[in-house]
Amino acid sequence: MPFPPSDMLAAQSKWLYFQGLEHKLRERHPELAHRVFFNSGGPFFYLKVNLSGESGVALAITRFGNTETWAILDPQSDSEPSVWAPSTPGEVLVDSLAAHAAAHLAGVPVASPWRWHQSERSDMTDLADLLTDSGVKVRRVVAGNGWFAYGPRHEPKLGLVESSRGHHLDAELPGGVLVRVSIKPNLGWTAHVHTPEWNAWGRIDLSRALTGRERPVPGVPLASASTERIAEVISGGFPTWAEVRPWDPFRGYTPPSPFGFDPTEAVLAQLSPLGFGDLREGVGGALVSDSHHVEWYEQEPKTPGNLLKPELVRLNGLAAAAGEDAPKRLILITNCGLSRPAAAFADQAKAFVFHFNPETGRLDPLNPRAQEALPPWEDSRKHDLEPW
Hints:
Layout: H1 6-28, E1 36-38, E2 46-50, E3 56-64, E4 67-73, E5 82-84, H2 90-106, H3 123-133, E6 137-142, E7 147-150, E8 157-160, E9 167-173, E10 177-184, E11 188-195, E12 200-204, H4 206-211, H5 227-236, H6 263-271, E13 280-281, E14 287-288, E15 292-297, E16 306-307, H7 309-321, E17 329-334, E18 337-338, H8 340-348, E19 352-356, E20 363-365, H9 368-372
Parallel strand pairs: 15-17, 16-18, 17-19
Antiparallel strand pairs: 1-2, 2-3, 3-4, 4-5, 6-9, 7-8, 9-10, 10-11, 11-12, 13-14, 19-20
């Protein structure tokens, strides 16, 4: 007897997996069991919860370009599919399917966190709920699940936000003002605003908006602010940020003259808008701060390579010793790269390391902590699903 071809085996495997999902759905949500339908005859398998007539909410394997993912589709033509990674546990898939079906049957919004295409509650889903309750439109939440669909509905594309970039949500205020609130692994809460007239992102000083005091470093520790207070600040709009205006949108650095630039001025012009509030120019053009020690490290052109961990440990020691009453944190400006062990140590030491381009004057982050200080680079509405 010949061995079954690979496509037959793949189809059999999918059939068995969908059958298992059907059993899970009936067991975990017995109130929907009489509405569950599995089209076991294929050729495209799906699991469906019938609503009325032939309409229903379905779970299927959907192809976006060359990638197959799970997607939950409901009968509303203007709805956004709930997209999940191929490795998503079956329990999550059937619970999400049940949540969407139950909402349609009851005529209410999908329950949180499923309405945000997340499987677990988090600070970000709680914030999204609070903003929605206050009348703010939440466009997208990225927490545990960073998969989403965008582009033309007849041929949607797959979007993916890596979990290493932290959690965030995008909310839209009147006038086309877009706010991104993020929870960064190293910096905590951050917020940025994008307006049509700027067509760029500017930083919201959350610390000043929350407490009236400016922090000398980007971000607000999670323990220092509740989701309720963050929601109040964001939903309040520009009036709650009034003390921080006017501010400049972050567009990257452009030398003021084609005949050259001052490196100190270039660095200061880029770091200040990122939230290094007490950084200033001192005697002899040096950059000084009450909380940070700015160190310049220039590698000779004849010895290209990355800055190694032992040298970064030494520079971090110089920064700590520069403090009078307390150790200072290191801000390192360098013309070379950074080894992985050095980058890991920089994060551990709460240091910020930036590469300085001598030709353009621009700074680029070299460790994750420095990367987190940067604002978003584009309007996330470019990754919306287009209307039919």
